[in-house]
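Please fill in the sequence for the structure shown.

STRUCTURE ENCODING:
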């Protein structure tokens, strides 16, 4: 598989996560108390609409973390803030300061630059 094909696939996956594109099939899989598994097919367009609504309510920090495919803990380490701070930003309880907003913008566009800078500290 070529690198360009992988990038195209990832772009489609991200579009589905943001609710911009409906997937071909969607399954809801649930494990029952008795240990058995039930699989139910969902409507792809309904799923897309639900994803779009969920994406719209996310805070900017949550969107950036999600785009970088990082856990809250790894994201906090990457940008040099506490895990509690990231959680507050994502819940909308606190808001990043001016400097933190700039750092988040850099993290979105150039995540490796931040990783390299933190490695020097």
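FILLED IN BY: designer on duty
SEQUENCE:
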């Amino acid at each position: 598989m070529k690198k360009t094909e992988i990038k195209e696939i990832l772009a489609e996956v991200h579009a589905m996560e943001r609710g911009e594109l409906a997937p071909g099939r969607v399954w809801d899989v649930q494990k029952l108390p008795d240990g058995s598994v039930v699989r139910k097919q969902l409507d792809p367009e309904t799923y897309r609409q639900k994803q779009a609504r969920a994406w719209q309510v996310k805070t900017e920090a949550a969107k950036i973390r999600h785009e970088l495919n990082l856990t809250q803990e790894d994201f906090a380490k990457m940008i040099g803030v506490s895990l509690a701070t990231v959680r507050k930003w994502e819940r909308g309880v606190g808001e990043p300061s001016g400097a933190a907003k700039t750092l988040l913008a850099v993290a979105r566009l150039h995540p490796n630059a931040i990783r390299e800078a933190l490695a020097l500290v």
